[in-house]
Amino acid sequence: MRFCFDWRDCRVTVAILGGEPMLLAGRVSTLLALPATVLVEAEAGAADLTARETAHGAWRLEGALTCWHHRHFDDLLINLIAQVGQSFLQRTDLLLLHSAACSHNGEAVLFAGASRVGKSSLALAAWLVGHEFMADDVLAVDPRTRLTMTFPKALKPRLRERAVPEPLVSLLPDAHRLVGEWSGEYRMLLGRGLPRMVAHERELAFGRLYLVERAPSGPSRVAPLPREAALRDLLAQVITTRPSAPMEAVRLLRDWWAEGKVYRLWLGENDLDRAVELMLP
């Protein structure tokens, strides 16, 4: 069977061969909060991604240029969801930033930074204390209106083992959570249908942006970010999907800095709660 998933003006098609296709597509739909539409053979065309069941319950996930083998169904699912997001990333005309974000007082508060700096942990900590989640890795911005919006990727913090942490079990219904291996490490995926997840159709005005770096010592703290550092360091967080993206980002970042809305967040070790209070007072 073939299914399509639509986000804004983009579409990704997935072929599911084996297993229970409706169940698998339904899980992707629930976790990404995107409707799954069955395609009839005449309109299906070539699939962007193919999930193919192989021997003994294992699966092969096939993309345009490569494929991945998964022994566990949950590993297939978490990687399929990641590849659906990657496919959308290659299709959109929106400006994409390598940034986490939450909604605060009706505005988007962004916290950008390099991989493994703590963006997903900050996003999870903010969500747990009552803030609305927008993104933990990729955020979309319309460079014309300056409005921010969600991207079809779920909150996916790292885990030390293949299990939902005990304090979170009662907060996360089975249908809206997933634990699997992705890129060589365990991840817990929180579905976008959970409470306090900003809906895909919402567009929020920009509030503030924090460049996140690990503090060399001491607690979390916020510091001014010089203009040159803001443009240099934050431009590095632009996901360049088209030639105009860097210049669009420069114009946005220059305006945001001029409006006094760009800061540096030094993230202290084991100090997520204080960091959330500083960013979302």
- Enumerate the spans where pLDDT stays under 50 for 5 or more consecutive residues: none
- Quaternary state reads single chain
Give the termini separation: 48 Å
Largest sheet geometry: 9 strands, mixed
Q: Classify the helix fraction into a percent range.
A: 25-40%
Tell me the fraction of residues in β-strands, as a range. 25-35%
What is the count of distinct domains? 2
CATH topology of the largest domain: Phosphoenolpyruvate Carboxykinase, domain 3
Secondary structure: number of strands: 18
The CATH class of the largest domain is identified as Alpha Beta
Specify the overall morphology: globular
Mean pLDDT: 93
Characterise this structure.
With 281 residues, the protein is of the alpha+beta class. 28% of the residues lie in helices and 33% in strands. The chain has 2 domains: 88 residues, no CATH class; 149 residues, Phosphoenolpyruvate Carboxykinase, domain 3 (Alpha-Beta Complex). Helix 6 runs antiparallel to helix 7. The longest helix has 17 residues. It is globular and about 55 Å long.
Question: Which structural traits does this protein have?
Answer:
single chain; 281 residues; alpha+beta; Phosphoenolpyruvate Carboxykinase, domain 3; 2 domains; 9-stranded mixed sheet; 6-stranded mixed sheet; globular
